[in-house]
Amino acid sequence: MFPGPFGQLRHGRLRLAVDFYIPYRFFKLTSGAARNRNTTYFAADAVTGALDLIEFKQAPSEQEMSCFETERFAEVGIDDEEAIRQVRERLMRLIFMKGFFKLSQVEMEIELVASLHIPYWVGVYERRGVAHLEVINALQGRFEGAKIREILAKWVHP
Questions:
Q1: Which of 47, 56, 88, 111 registers the highest number of CB atoms within 10 A of its CB?
Q2: Do the Cβ atoms of 123 and 138 come closer than 8 Å?
Q3: SS3 2
């Protein structure tokens, strides 16, 4: 998943690639008027609550999850109540951006349905004696930015 020649030009030589896990809470959002209810699932990080929400079509099933031991994971930093408050606030902001007039029609129920860790791949590059990190969300296959690297830095140097 880490780019070969392009990554080497940009960051240097890939020295290490490891998996890293960030705790997330999965929420079920039920919204809309009584006769037109919509259900969506969102995952919010449980470290800072600052990472982008990840939308899912359904909650993860037992078959889609695995359990194993590792030392490469970030610690939970916010409790359930704070996580629900942050998710509600962020979803209201999204609704507001779609149109203020819709705010009066929104009924929203947020329910915590699961807590688990989402895997990320971390590539450590070395160029002229300096290390650079690239992080890929292993579920979505997309590169992540500074917020994830900040969580990793705090894990490496608490």
A1: 47
A2: no
A3: coil
